[in-house]
Design brief:
The chain is mostly helical. The chain has helices at about 10-15, 20-35, 35-50, 65-80, 95-105, 115-120, 125-135, 140-150, 155-160, 165-190, 195-210. It folds into two domains: about 1-110, Orthogonal Bundle (Rna Polymerase Sigma Factor, Chain: A); about 125-210, Winged helix-like DNA-binding domain superfamily/Winged helix DNA-binding domain (Arc Repressor Mutant, subunit A, Orthogonal Bundle). It is built from eleven helices and no strands. Helix 3 (about 35-50) packs across helix 4, helix 9 crosses helix 10 (about 165-190) and helix 10 (about 165-190) packs antiparallel against helix 11 (about 195-210). It is globular. About 30% of the residues are buried.
Amino acid sequence: MTDKGLTPDQAERFRQWCWPHQEAMLRLALLLTRREDQAEDIVHDAMIKAMRAIDTLDEGSNAKPWLMTILRRTWIDAMRTHKYNTREHTLDETVQSQLTAVSSESTVETEPARNDPQAMLNRFEDEAVVQMLNSLPEAMRWTLLLVDVEGLDHEQAAGILGVPVGTIKSRAHHGRQKLRAGLAHLARQRGWVDQQVAIDSVTESGEHHER
């Protein structure tokens, strides 16, 4: 085979190991971009890269962290080059047709209870909440997306982001604190709770951190 095609065995491994995580990748990309077209483009390119690198994934290993690493690198490249400002970029027709075939022929179920990215996004449908998440420093935001949204453990997130496990734990803790404080402020603004309850919520989170 050439680098533009897959053998039947490689195509089957890609279908079985990678395709079940495509919806999770789309969900994460949607949270990052808030634009369906850009999210689809990023995931599409990431899956093409995964397809071409399928031989580097060992049988029995967890494909999800591997795919999230590819997705993150694709996202970073996109932000650097502004690649996804338009949909004009094209892909090799052979690779495109193979990815389409995997999508249409696959009978592999996606992650249980996580196969509808729009349903998942409904938890974050309040734009103010999403903006709050996206206002966090990039490293902290990625940590929360991987650990709290995608359910990866600290070790897996550390591998994807290339930092020690302790750093992931610290980022997750401080990120949750910032979100908690922001949500308390938002709840107070919208009259969901009174001012003292919101203040107590933030104070308790800070006291817990100090203990």
